[in-house]
Design brief:
The chain folds into two domains: 106 residues, Roll (Archaeosine Trna-guanine Transglycosylase, Chain: A, domain 4); 97 residues. The protein has a five-stranded mixed barrel. It has five helices and six strands. By secondary structure, it is an alpha+beta fold. 40% of the residues lie in helices and 25% in strands. A hairpin with a 5-residue loop joins strand 4 and strand 5. The radius of gyration is 21 Å and the shape is globular.
Length: 220
């Protein structure tokens, strides 16, 4: 079991994802200073709206955050960028004499699964993600490339989820899932429901740009 400083927030960090944070509370300024003087790691834990910080139950899942970049401001605040590391399960709180919580955490990973099912699910999600991304960029006149995805099928679900608009409870449910196939199935369902309407809007948008207006039945 590892001792890990905790940043308890109403948001979810996924493994491999980047997250900018603004540090302004005195207790978290102290935590950041301690982390920068040490291994640069702390844990981000999702706080549901119905719970208080001290009420998080044992087994609650979070994600290790590593400080990749930190801009320390003159007034003591900081702007930082963290990257998501491994998931962990909260065992309880340490008795550390710090103004911030320190968790006692255990490793939390996926359970063994069927590699064939995983590869098939990953292929479908990659294809849908590409289509959704291209359609969204066409609608927004955005020439940027669709975000690249990891080659590792086991990590794919977290990379996709980090780019998709999901509410915090859904993100937490995905973080807690120990089956990559099940996470990909959830994301496949979400992307499949979005891709048709987005591609139709993108086609109309493309026609409007080329013709000066969107074509419709009966209109000149």
């Amino acid at each position: 079991m590892r001792r890990l400083p905790l940043f308890i927030l109403p948001l979810v960090l996924f493994p491999g994802a980047l997250l900018p944070l603004h540090i302004f509370e005195p207790r978290y300024r102290r935590m950041l200073g301690d982390c920068l003087a040490g291994d640069r790691e702390f844990g981000i834990v999702y706080l549901p709206p119905e719970l208080r910080e001290h009420e998080l139950p044992p087994g609650h899942v979070g994600c290790v955050a590593r400080v990749d970049d930190a801009l320390l401001l003159d007034d003591g605040r900081s702007n930082i960028v963290v990257s998501g590391g491994a998931r962990f399960a909260l065992g309880g709180y340490s008795d550390a004499e710090t103004p911030y919580y320190v968790g006692l955490v255990d490793e939390y990973g996926d359970l063994p699964g069927d590699a064939t099912l995983l590869a098939a699910a990953a292929a479908r999600v990659r294809e849908l993600f590409g289509r959704v991304g291209r359609a969204a960029r066409e609608i927004d006149d955005d020439s940027a490339a669709v975000p690249s995805l990891p080659d590792d099928d086991g990590r794919l679900s977290f990379a996709v989820a980090a780019h998709v608009d999901l509410d915090a409870p859904t993100r937490q449910r995905l973080l807690e899932s120990r089956s990559a196939v099940e996470r990909l199935a959830d994301l496949e369902s979400l992307l499949a429901s979005a891709v048709g309407p987005l591609e139709r809007r993108a086609a109309v948008h493309a026609r409007a740009k080329s013709n000066g207006h969107a074509e419709s039945d009966g209109d000149a």
